[in-house]
Amino acid sequence: MYPAKQISQSDSRWVLRMPAIPSIFLLCAWNLVSGQIRYSIPEELEHGAFVGKLAEDLGLNVEELSRRRFRIVSVSQTKYLDINLKNGILFVNKRINREELCGQSLTCLLPLEAVIENPVEQYRAEVEILDINDNSPRFPVNEIRLEIAESATAGARFLLQAAQDPDVRINSLRTYELAPNDYFVLDVQIHGEMKLPELVLEKTFDREKQSQHRLLLTALDGGSPERTGTIHVTITVLDTNDNAPVFQKSLYTVSLIEDVQSGTLVIKLNATDLDEGSNSDIVYSLSSYNKERVRELFNINPISGDIRVKGILDFEDTSTYDIYVEAKDRGFHPLSTHCTVQVNVKDVNDNAPNFTLNSVAKVVREDASTGTLIAFINVRDRDSHENGHVDCQISPNLPFVLKSSFKNSYTLMSNGRLDRERSPAYNITVTCKDRGSPPLTTSKTIGVHITDINDNAPSFSLPSYIFYVKENIATGSSIGTVTAFDADVGQNSRISYTILDSEIQEAPLTSFVSINSENGVIYAQRTFDYEQLKRFQVHVQAQDGGVPLLSNKVSVNVIILDQNDNPPVITSPGSMKHSVIAVPQSADPGYLATKIIASDADSGQNARLYYRIARATDTSLFTVSHHSGEVRTSRHFKDSDATTQRLVIQVRDNGLPPLTATATITLAVGEQSAEIRSDFAAPEKDLQHSSDVTFYIVIPLGVISFTLLVVIIALVVAIWPISRQPAYARSCSIVKCCCVRELESKDRFQNSIGNLQIVPDPKMIANALEIRGNGILSDTYHYRVRAAPQRASNELMFFRPLSPATSITNGRNSRIAESESDGKVSNDWPDKPNKVSSTHWNAQLVDEHRKRG
């Protein structure tokens, strides 16, 4: 709080002399104990009347009032006062009637609370409403009538109806005056706040002279100017009834709780009369000068004097009721007496707390700082003491806090980080509970919506993307879609996609692909060629539309898939127009005439080539290997065969659809010469020596056959005891035996076969031999010796020559196995190698060697 300047008496007089409000008595005082500013103004001021320089007294800059949203929060429902934000002056907003606002309370305070934001500060002030003399004393009846027996002695007292003045203090009822007369004087009795006029008889009546007297009673207040009220008192002189009823007390005190039932006994009065007969019969009644509210709440039994509750008592309305009771006898000239019953109402907790919400911020930014004002709460409980003491709290586990600023005044503020993506709105329930027994509670819910800020960058659905695209795709075709999400809303979640600049093969990336900025679809900007570009990477950035702009990026790998768009290309032989390939007429079946070499720029199955003879002069003379392209003879030449053979070889790939290429080969069939010689042919010999050659071949062949027979018998003798051994021992013994015998006969094979070499292959499985050829026998053959327990002889596994790319898996070659059948070479792919007995293999190998020279 800011210290306020005290106003001196001279300043106060100056305020009173202001021409704008000449009738205002304004006092601004600083309460050192409570630390609050208090202003004093009279009631009944017109709209716009000056109250005080509130901004100056609070030490606030007038220029900041509007910017910081300075406002007056009135506790009452009617906004009696307001502030001018241009000059900081507190003024009367609505005419104030003190009697309506505070009744007859001695002090009438109008509490004010002021709030200013950025930062939030709270002030409390009080405006005391001063009473002015705007009400005249008024009697509740138009005329007072009294009946007094003529036997009344001097000094007898007669209580009259009291006047009422709603003003307080000096402006309230001050005294009574009685017009001059010969019989009565006035005596004013004071009972608490009540001033009761009593007539005192100065001399006895003479009914025969005057039976009726008329007096004028005037009630005066203490205001300036003084106000008055008058009433006529008519006195009728009656015949003698000289004993009036008497109460034991003049004042009775009773306590009741406010929630008593209707009909509850308040008190039983008992008055006595010393007379006899009808003069001693007493009738009880409520005096005419009781307030109307008393008559509404209580009644009295005229015979028994029982006072009972007939209405609903409310401590919050009135805590004390004064009941004026009159007891009158039934004499011919009845006499009466009066007493007062004071009923004190005790409070019960029958009022739940009531609170109002002011300055409610229904929309708050999610980046609002801690301490942002949400609402200002005023709590009221009409009960008293502990029943009216209220404690408030809010829902737990919320980023808000409720702080108590003054008694029964709270401020709701933010108390943590707000996150719209987690909670876009909060329903804050404020619960206020008093300390009564049982306690009463009141709850209200405040809805607060959190507005979005751009605090979330776009995030992609995948950490990276892989798109497979076929080559030769049309320009403008879709490659794929990247998708990003943003947890924000509105413009903050509006995502645009762009491709980050980079180069591919010294060309800008944008010349290869483009992206739709709205939906993230990537399009091809050109036709891709797998043979030139197999893959490339694109970096895509997703950027939102918030302030500031937030972005994220992801890598997109584009993989080009090969298409069969390249036909096979024949690279060897070269030009076929003038090339003639000579084939000796004596060539045996399987003779390698030539080899077609082709290539394909594609990959995978699209580059796998297949060779076949499309057209031939004689289809029975030559065959072509489907996979290697080797052209070989399929039978012996006949004299009737044409000497010039033309072959059209078609090379086809394995793509869809397949592409082909053809090569035309001219073959010349003739006798072998020094210029034209096949690599497989031996030196040419005269035909007259053919019989000698045959003789020389038969003798070694017989010797070899006999030797092999002996070897077989020896193997059977060696294997027979081994066969009784366990499987693993038997396998090892057979391997050692076979390998040793094969190695021992290595030299004999080399001498008999010539250029063939038998070499153990360490890369192959056990029980295997490798035969390598020199010169035209450049292919390598692999043979495996396997023992057959059920048979008498071993078997050799015959493998096709291995190409450099051929792999060995689990002891089996991926191979092309060729076997002679009716003089033709088979191009089938057998699952298992061909099997021949060792004796048959040796004889066949030597015979073939002799035929080739």
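the 2nd protein, sequnce then structure:
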Amino acid sequence: MAALGENNENTPESDVPRRDPVGDPFLRTRFAVPIRPATFIRRERLVEHLDRALETPLTMINGGAGAGKTLLAADWAEHLEQPVAWLTCDPADQAPGVFWAYLLQALRAGGVRMRAVDEVGSPADPSRVDRTLLARLAAGLSGRDRPAVVILDEYDLVTTPEIADQLEFVLRHAGQGLRLVLVTRTEPLLPLHRYRALGTITEIRDAELAFTPEEAATLLDLHGLRLSGDGVRALVGRTQGWAAGLRLCALAAQESSDPETYLKEFEAGQSAVADFLLAEVLKRQSAETQELLLRVSVLDRFCPELANAVTGQRHAEPRLAELHRANAFVQHLGHSWYRLHPLFAEILRAHLRVRFPGLESELHRRAAAWLRRSGPLPETLAHGAAAGDWDFTARVLVDDLAIGQLFLGLRSDDLGELFARMAPDAEGPEANLVRAARALSEGDVERGLAHLQQVERELGRELPDAAAVHLNCALLQTLAARLTGAPGRAERAALKARLAQRDLASEALERHPELPALLQTHLGAARLWAGRFEEARAALSAVVAAHGGASTALPREESLCHLALIDYLEGRPSRAERKAAAAISDAERFSVPQPSGSGIGQLVLAAVAVDRDELDVAQALLDQATAVGHGAPDPVAAAARIIVGGRLVLARGDAQAALEVAGSGVTAAVASPWAQEHAALVASAAHLAEGRPEAALTVLDEAARHRTACAVEAARAHLAAGRLAEALRVLDGVHAAEPDGGPAITVRALLVRAQAADLAGDGATARRLVTQALRHARRERLRRPFLEAGPWIRPLLATEPAQELAADWLSRRPGPPPAGGPAPAPVVEPLSARERDVLQRLAQLMSTEEIAADLFVSVNTVKTHLKTAYRKLGVNRRNDAVRRARELHLM
């Protein structure tokens, strides 16, 4: 910065004023640019922004106490290659004469001297300034070749409107000769809207002044502190990048043997940060405003009406607006809502507990009562819990029909954690309903049922206005019936729910579309367990067809997955795959945790992968489903896991393990016909694989022989035992019973008939039936039926047109090596058709997400296919996988 005496050769020293209009000597410290501490860091992003001050007449650095405003301006001023006039304002500057005398002296002290300034003189009257003096000053500045830079620090201390008008007059008429920089905690009384409209103002505000994690790490490093990235981000989050807070925390942490732990766990109310904020912010306010701040500190956010309700005051609105304008750590969120700076709120709460012991709970209770009428449910519950009023909190959850949110995955963890603190002496049906819901959501069905029985006893006392209690109780009873495999109880509970809905306002039900969605999902699952597929499909399809957004994402996913399981059980693997993949993709779109629910979607996809002989993919999907650690035990999922697990180990050649899995069974109040049937199919296939056809027939339940799948397996066992006629009799007996069986069942039935024809010496019929089976299987890419058929089928697959139909998907032989080059190493294990589908899209430079969308599968499924393909091809990268697949003529 230029030296003090520049351009003063025409000004006699005796003409320079040495006293202000009051007669006191000028305080030279007010003209001194503040010295930066050794730990100051120059933040280039702010300096670059502040450099625009040289292009606009007005610049405002506006931030709260300790935001780093003054040090930023001081560092910038020291690096300018021109004179800068610095003035630190003072409360005594409210008199216009005193203010302008100091500002003129700042120009001289900063080396911004010129004949016009010296000819202006100095105000003689502390209370006023002659307009002519201001005009001369503006005219003199406007004639400069280079603009004068004037920085007014702590300008918020100057509150006289007359001074603001005078300053704006000089700024406007000085033209390009003045660059005014105001460092302030509040917006000045200047016509800022005019400068903003014309684009002639440079502004740096609190949000920009906040330290980034990278800047904070550098600052801590200057204090000799080296924190982990997570530690720095946590500190920045707690302080919101507040400069003074970071510096004070760093200084305190230097005294600790474990700085990172200290900065993570320090008590804000007992720290230098607290002393700073209480002195610089709280104690500067009036008694009424201090009380307002202390009492709203219990609120995460607040509007004037809520603040009035909590504090008992009437005039929160103007006080909050002024606190925000003054950058007093009150942040405006929009639409008349505010919040306190988190660290400031933490300190105020500690101060509140000391000054008003016991008041905090009452403030939470008032907030909960107001929010119950006008605010969002999560905040109402949070304040009710903080007040320790659990009867109120449980009643709010039940009356709002929001108990289903304990099962939705989106907010279930938050609600579970909140009600985990519920006092054991909380009474009433609402409290017991919440206990039952938490128990069922955690998989403790027995405890959940005990609480539901208590609710039913309480409902027997004819409680008034109990429709919401009845509906929530029926929902939980339906869930409990589903989880215990009791479809009859589920139907009765669902009926109770429908009756209770009649007594509730439609608006309440419309606010919570997840409640009927959960009810129908549980009912559909119970019907599926009972084997009533069409009734189950009706309930589940209603959930899928409804549009409830994120709140019904999990019920929709579960319903789609159950519908997919029905398709699979009916022998339609491709249809099942599409539904399961759509369910998982839809859940991912709404950020529902994956795998979610009971993992049925992954089980269906695994079952389809087994049918296609994609065993690695099936194992990965089965592992995903098994890894689901939350939620209650679900008999449908348990049965599906047995079926898929048994078929997978059997496909890998371990018949004994398949028998053990199939015999493990599912605990339920009522046996499921399809669960028994498919477990018997796995066991029968395992016996046949080990050459025991009689044992295979024994495990097939006689009552299920009318089912096509069981009949086909029984016929296969008879053929293995050499009973051709009996095999044909069994097949003929069920052909008309299930004419609409899906392709998976049709393919197996055709192959058994082809085997029978082959044994009877009717080669033409055998070839025709194998060809028909190939046509059905090709569309679904079903390989396991052909691999399990036995050696008799191999000659038939080598004939035309079977060979042509089997090419590219059933027989996976790589083509010849490229001419003129060495043959590539063979693939140890053939790629599956789906793995080749994924590689084809990789070659088109599609992303993982694009491949998933194109194939109607989830991103996780694509990643599993890629991982398996890489292993089979012996590569680690995408480009290498595509290149090698082309070398092997697999694409």
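Residues 1-14, 812-828 have pLDDT under 50 and may be disordered. The beta strands are 58-62, 84-88, 148-153, 178-184, 201-205, 330-334, 337-340.
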